[in-house]
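2024-03-11 09:14:02 DEBUG pipeline.ingest accepted 1 chain
2024-03-11 09:14:02 DEBUG pipeline.ingest length=477
2024-03-11 09:14:03 DEBUG pipeline.predict start
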Amino acid sequence: MNSNSPEDTNIRNIRRLIWLYFWLLLFEGALRKWVVPQLSNPLLIVRDPVLILIYLLAIRARVFPNNAWVISVGVIGLLAFAVSFVPLWPFLPPSRILLVTGFGLRSNFLHLPLIFVMPRVLRMEDVKRFGWWTLALTVPMALLMVGQFQSAPDSFLNRTAGGEGEMMIAALGKVRTAGTFSFVVGVVAFFALATAFLIWAALRRGVYKSWLLYAAGIALAIGTAVSGSRSVVAGCAIVIASLVVILVLKPQALNRFGHILLVTLVLGFIVTRTPIFKEGFNVLSTRFSEVAEATEKSVGAGAFERIAGDFRESWLAFTKAPFLGYGLGIGTNAGAKFLTGRATFLLTEVEWSRLFLESGPVLGLAFVLWRCGLVARLGLLCVRSVKRSNVLPLLIFSSTFAPLVNGQLGQPTILGFAVFASGLALSARREEETLPSDNAPDEMVRTARALPRRSQYAERLHGSAPLPDHTNGAVDR
């Protein structure tokens, strides 16, 4: 392809827009809290114009995906949007219906095709650069969280979106620190993604400089301690737990694990002796203890009970929801604000329950099954990558599969990270196109080594060796 061709220019511009999507995802919360709080509501959709421009350029460059996943989710979204007018028409003017259902269409469906656009335009070097910036930004993010942790709940640093209010309290009068994000859910997703890149870089010598890995590791430890959030701990723990899958499928990929474990223990010993870590860990452990006492269950049992409770509520919503639902978007905070003037949950906080109640049992279930099927497909592809000695896709996938299954897509930060990290996981499979021969699948390596050296006659007979320069007259012919 000519470097100056329109297709090549479009691809480069799409990459630049994906980078803009990434930066807005990280800092739109800072804009809503501190820079322009009066524009907090419009900034909820600040990434949407960027996304639409990505789609338009992708169509022009003929890289917009038209696979079964995109087509099917488009059909579900359009049907859910159309039928929502039936239950809402007697109660709301058409303009208000368009606002509510339009935001619901945007939250549930609009961003999902980006998952498939990203691997069509991003190169492995782009994925590495995203990883570098993710790790580098953990340091200032952790420092900001330390400042929020040490500040009073009503301080400027702990303002919520809109520039008013306070962050949620974790324990002992300390807030759940949110960094640059509007809510702590942003820290959950960002730290999980950073953990994925940190583990990958630690397993692969020379990907990033050692100073970056040490700084990011310390920042993650301190940031997690002062977060005051159990979800931050769980998000990072899930990524670390994916090493078990890698160990089973491709133990050779963990050939530096012993060295990494030793360095981790040394750094961990140092970090845990710092006063800020001790104070943060005390708050975090108190938070775990208070929840355990309130539920009269252990931490693990409490988490299991919460998940089981969400599924029970979802099943109840499925059986009780009207056939056409109450209307797309009503269950989101923004939809509620359009209707009542106040951001709240009009239906439920549980994602699957919201989908069933908004769109009815048929379309709601169709979208739930679509999300579960997509996660299963992405997981299968990432497992195949592990077998090819490429562990990064699985690590990134482990940071995002949970919100992709049942995360609250009506919350812009959760939606953004679920889509972006999923697309990044698929893009990371690009490394398999350039894997050196020593990283070939084991069975291929074993087969190649097992072949005996053939005689010169056999080489000539099977045509795998070059013909000699001299000729033998009619014999050669």
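2024-03-11 09:14:41 DEBUG pipeline.report Residues 6-439 form one domain.
2024-03-11 09:14:41 DEBUG pipeline.predict end
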